[in-house]
Q: What sequence folds into this?
């Protein structure tokens, strides 16, 4: 796989330029440890993946709430399926749904982690807080505190983190509208490309918050993200994104 000639390695989350390349592990549809390692080898500065609690209480890395993607009439909710049952499912090539601890251990120390909290749809605020606290405890055993950023679409779910812990608010739709703002200013916001413009980026930058934009996979999307002066591009093709960002850096001189 192609690697970057000018890797952009920063040891902590926050405002930065040129934009870091964030590999969206969940959006690729491949939730395996092998896919994580491939993203790192492709030159990603950071990897983003979802964490949820399964039926046995373990924290696993998975995106969908149900197992429908596996076919065979697999309609069970992940939140009601035990870890042994989940481990019977093949992600491809013999790869299994990983535990959060194993996924974190697979990411080298110099690569940042964007850990997105994905509670079950039926979870109440207490259960959402429990997921956040449990994920933070597991991350603390394998990573430095500033290398893991905890993200959520619900700002209330980020309230359990101290102000010094990096958090990301995932804003779906209008880039300046938040239903339940977090208790502390987030280190970053994740905005959707179709809804983002320069005014939205300025809005968040004025608050000291980094802006990560996605999806940014095609060349035109990456060039647009660059022109908006965002701090990170969220992509399903980190190798191509790395090459494009490096080329833009060289052209800018």
A:
């Amino acid at each position: 796989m192609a690697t970057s000639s000018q890797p952009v390695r920063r040891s902590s989350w926050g405002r930065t330029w040129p934009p870091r390349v964030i590999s969206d592990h969940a959006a690729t549809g491949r939730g395996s440890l092998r896919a994580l390692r491939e993203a790192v080898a492709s030159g990603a500065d950071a990897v983003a993946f979802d964490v949820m609690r399964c039926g046995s209480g373990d924290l696993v890395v998975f995106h969908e709430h149900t197992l429908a993607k596996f076919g065979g009439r697999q309609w069970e909710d992940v939140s009601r399926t035990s870890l042994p049952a989940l481990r019977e499912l093949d992600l491809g090539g013999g790869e299994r749904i990983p535990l959060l601890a194993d996924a974190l251990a697979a990411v080298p120390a110099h690569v940042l982690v964007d850990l997105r909290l994905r509670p079950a749809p039926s979870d109440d605020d207490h259960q959402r807080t429990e997921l956040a606290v449990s994920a933070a405890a597991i991350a603390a055993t394998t990573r430095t505190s500033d290398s893991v950023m905890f993200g959520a679409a619900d700002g209330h779910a980020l309230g359990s983190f101290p102000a010094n812990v990096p958090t990301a608010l995932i804003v779906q739709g209008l880039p300046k509208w938040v239903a339940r703002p977090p208790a502390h200013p987030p280190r970053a916001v994740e905005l959707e490309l179709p809804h983002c413009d320069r005014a939205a980026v300025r809005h968040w930058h004025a608050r000291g918050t980094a802006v990560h934009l996605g999806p940014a996979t095609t060349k035109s999307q990456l060039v647009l993200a660059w022109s908006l002066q965002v701090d990170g591009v969220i992509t399903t093709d980190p190798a191509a994104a790395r090459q494009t960002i490096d080329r833009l850096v060289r052209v800018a001189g």
The first strand starts at residue 20 and ends at 24. The chain has a mean pLDDT of 88. Residues 87 and 143 are 25 Å apart (CA to CA).
